[in-house]
């Protein structure tokens, strides 16, 4: 497939298109974007950004290439620093409360909502992207906005996939992977009886543990906050989710809840 600079500027999703380019083609795309962007940087402008340390070297290489293309196209130098996955949130909190530190944070979940009054209003950026690329999905709006203003720009969703052996599935008496929470619990019980229990991380880590505790809470009708940001965690729905989670990890491989 041949991708021209004009096609990149006028079609598709910008991030996806940029991610598919390397070398001179990426720089050409960045320059074309800079020429048409509604924002023009101040003379001598610089930015500092904190992100988590990479898990895969090639991801970081691609990220650095994007930032380098941005700098060459706009003249704005971006200093990138990296911290461990769990340290991004406390570092961001300190910066928000002291008014010193990186300008940008690549964070997780609802990080900006811990200090919404400290975040710059980026509604112009969010509105520009929404109009140019087909709008935002509802959950992105929820995470990106505080009140009537955008305080963050959602970048991506991280999905978790279930991996299973078809032979173990059939041995447990299932012809297809469970589609409901009740079926999944029965599946966990059956695989444990057969000596092939499954497992998902349920610990204090900020990634994997939240990755399944959140869906467990939501699947039982619970939530952390309501539409008005009032904390509603203490609820019958949360109790049901906890009871389910306890039964689930008791039928998983030992060590899951640690």
Give an account of the 3D structure:
There is one protein chain. This protein is mostly helical and 258 residues long. The protein is 46% helix and 8% strand. It contains eleven helices and five strands, in the order αααβαβαβααββαααα. The protein has helices spanning 5-10, 14-19, 23-36, 57-74, 88-98, 123-133, 138-144, 166-171, 181-193, 208-219, 236-250, and strands at 46-52, 77-83, 104-105, 145-146, 149-150. The strands form two sheets. A three-stranded parallel β-sheet has the order 2-1-3, covered by helices on one side. It has a two-stranded antiparallel sheet with strand order 4-5. β1 (46-52), α4 and β2 form a beta-alpha-beta unit. α3 (23-36) packs across α4 (57-74) and α10 crosses α11 (236-250). The protein is globular, with a radius of gyration of 22 Å. Residues 1-13 have low confidence and may be disordered.
Structural class: mainly alpha
User: Cα-atom Rg, whole angstroms?
Assistant: 22 Å
Give, in order, the helices and strands: HHHEHEHEHHEEHHHH
Helix content range: 40-55%
Strand percentage lies at 5-15%
Q: What does the average pLDDT come to?
A: 89
Strand order of the largest sheet: 2-1-3
Termini separation comes to 49 Å
Number of DSSP-assigned strands: 5
Please work out how many helical segments DSSP would assign.
11
The global form is globular
List unreliable stretches of 5+ residues. Answer: 1-13
The major β-sheet equals:
3 strands, parallel
């Amino acid at each position: 497939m041949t991708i021209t600079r004009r096609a990149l500027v006028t079609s598709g999703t910008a991030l996806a298109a940029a991610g598919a380019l390397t070398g001179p083609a990426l720089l050409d795309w960045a320059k074309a974007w800079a020429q048409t962007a509604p924002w023009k940087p101040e003379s001598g402008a610089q930015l500092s950004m904190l992100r988590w340390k990479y898990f895969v070297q090639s991801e970081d290489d691609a990220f650095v290439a994007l930032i380098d293309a941005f700098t060459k196209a706009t003249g704005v130098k971006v200093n990138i620093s990296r911290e461990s996955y769990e340290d991004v949130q406390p570092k961001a909190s300190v910066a928000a409360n002291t008014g010193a530190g990186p300008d940008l944070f690549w964070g997780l979940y609802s990080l900006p909502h811990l200090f919404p009054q400290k975040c710059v209003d980026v509604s112009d950026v969010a509105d520009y992207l929404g109009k140019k690329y087909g709008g935002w999905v509802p959950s992105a709006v929820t995470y990106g906005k505080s009140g009537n203003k955008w305080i963050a720009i959602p970048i991506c969703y991280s999905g978790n996939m279930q991996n299973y052996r078809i032979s173990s599935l059939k041995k447990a008496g299932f012809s297809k992977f469970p589609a409901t929470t009740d079926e999944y619990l029965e599946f966990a019980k059956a695989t444990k009886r057969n000596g092939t229990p499954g497992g998902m991380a349920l610990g204090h880590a900020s990634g994997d543990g939240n990755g399944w505790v959140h869906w467990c809470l939501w699947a039982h009708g619970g939530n952390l906050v309501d539409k008005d940001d009032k904390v509603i965690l203490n609820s019958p729905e949360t109790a049901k989710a906890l009871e389910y989670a306890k039964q689930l990890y008791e039928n998983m491989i030992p060590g899951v809840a640690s």
